[in-house]
Design a protein that fits this description.
The protein has one helix and twelve strands; from the N terminus they run E-E-E-E-E-H-E-E-E-E-E-E-E. With 132 residues, it is mostly beta strands. A hairpin with a 6-residue loop joins strand 10 and strand 11. The radius of gyration is 14 Å and the shape is globular. The mean pLDDT is 92.
């Protein structure tokens, strides 16, 4: 559990924004950033984001829903969302737990993901249980 990243306090209700500002999310983070990680699946290793999770009810799209684009692949379970203007990945509905969203920590307002204490664990998305 991380309640402070660098000089930024993680608020219990924290905003996340894409690069151009068209997509704005509100995240319920009462425990701060919980279990930040990377994934080595084909999608995640290309985008390079560090993600953390919230329950589905813990993410609200404040603005830009019409700007979001969805991408699915392989089992078509996970739903990855990107800003249609600037291309920034903001969040995804998880394949490993469809009751959760993974969100891009770098989109949290005021947060520099390079300030996260390391090492950041890497999940084994290449050998995902749903592929067996």
């Amino acid at each position: 559990m991380i309640k402070r990243i660098g000089n930024t306090d993680i608020q219990p209700r924290h905003r996340a924004v894409c690069h151009c500002g068209a997509v704005v999310l509100e995240l319920e983070l009462p425990d701060g950033v919980v279990d930040p990680c990377r994934c080595n699946c084909s999608m995640c290793r290309r985008r390079g984001a560090i993600v953390a999770s919230v329950p589905l009810a813990g993410l609200r799209i404040v603005s830009g829903e019409e700007t979001l684009r969805r991408y699915q692949f392989n089992t078509m379970t996970a739903q990855h969302y990107f800003c249609g203007n600037c291309g920034i990945y903001t969040h995804h509905q998880r394949r490993s737990n469809p009751e959760q969203y993974g969100y891009n920590i770098a989109c949290l307002e005021g947060v520099d993901p390079f300030d996260l204490p390391g090492p950041i664990p890497v999940g084994d998305g290449v050998n995902h249980p749903a592929d067996r």
